[in-house]
């Protein structure tokens, strides 16, 4: 009979918030009150703000809009160009994504053409540095090419790690939105977008420490490496790494936190169980490692959710894995008791057999004693077979427990 135990190993999901020097675009110029060209323009600006631009021009004109902003050294920025057609009243309006960019000014450059020729106009707008809100923000996942590389990344990239990179991306694309919702107990919303994201997760085909980076201009990004110091990051745990690094947007600062953005002390959340009990933002992060599995935390603790700005925090939903573990644990206790009872019964019968052997060492038994002896041996063998069967069932439950990722 074997009674293997669940084992845990420590894995590190290291993160840092290292400032990166910002590079701003040239300061945008423009004038709401005058056209950019010297000739009179039929274009009149109705509204020019970051995220929205409306003009009045000639009816049915085709208009091209260029959006000129400083995306920041780490930022994605809004779309660079859009087109639209004026309605019968000559109204054209664009509404576009407004990802996190440095504070300053931007410019809308518009060119319209139609039956009366071509005209253009430029209008400035102010940009305020917004704070990312865990209740709703956008993320984009981008594969870093091992040949082209990524600006600011000096790590040697390895083309052989492209399959691991792509597996991580596929898993995150399929699950990250829902995992953020579950990690924040339904309070937060992460939306994956194909472009113009608040924060980009770059998946790097190389070995390194995954990290959240914040520039002095306010822009941010995440680098997620396909291989860390413990080996290839599994596709499943790439999601946990991404959650951890995105958590650094808000956590952890102030009392109880270290300079590296992690909690100084592991404090269990009374409402979280298993591998999640300390939350996501400890260092080192404690992962569960077993045969064929590696499971790391993917739920934020109560104190982490509060750093994100949530004040009314519900209890987390029941963890199906922990529920199953409790069910199997109770079953194992019952099965173990059954094995012990059968062994005790076998021991009683064995003691009677041993008493007969002690009385008749040569086993030259009288007929009545012989019949008793044979009956006891048959009874013992039957109980021994029953013990073997119960032990097999017990070990099956142990294997099921060991296979759980919690």
Structural summary, described in words:
The protein is α+β, with helices and mostly antiparallel strands and 406 residues long. The chain has three domains: 9-17 and 132-317, Collagenase (Catalytic Domain) (3-Layer(aba) Sandwich); 44-127, Macroglobulin (MG2) domain (Immunoglobulin-like), CATH 2.60.40; 322-402. The chain is built from five helices and 16 strands. The chain has helices at 162-183, 235-247, 302-307, 320-359, 367-402, and strands spanning 9-10, 44-49, 52-56, 62-68, 81-85, 91-95, 104-114, 117-127, 137-143, 190-192, 199-207, 211-214, 220-228, 231-232, 286-290, 293-295. Strands 9, 10, 11, 12, 13 and 14 form a six-stranded mixed β-sheet that branches. A hairpin with a 2-residue loop joins strand 15 (286-290) and strand 16. Helix 4 (320-359) runs antiparallel to helix 5. It is elongated, with a radius of gyration of 33 Å.
- The arrangement of helices and strands along the chain is EEEEEEEEEHEEEEEHEEHHH
Percent strand equals 15-25%
Average residue pLDDT = 87
Low-confidence stretches: 1-39
Biggest sheet layout: 6 strands, mixed
The CATH topology assignment of the largest domain is: Collagenase (Catalytic Domain)
Helices, by number, come to 5
Helical content band: 25-40%
Write the layout of secondary structure elements.
Elements lengths: L8 E2 L33 E6 L2 E5 L5 E7 L12 E5 L5 E5 L8 E11 L2 E11 L9 E7 L18 H22 L6 E3 L6 E9 L3 E4 L5 E9 L2 E2 L2 H13 L38 E5 L2 E3 L6 H6 L12 H40 L7 H36 L4
Parallel strand pairs: 9-10, 9-11, 11-13
Antiparallel strand pairs: 1-15, 2-3, 3-6, 4-5, 4-7, 7-8, 12-13, 13-14, 15-16
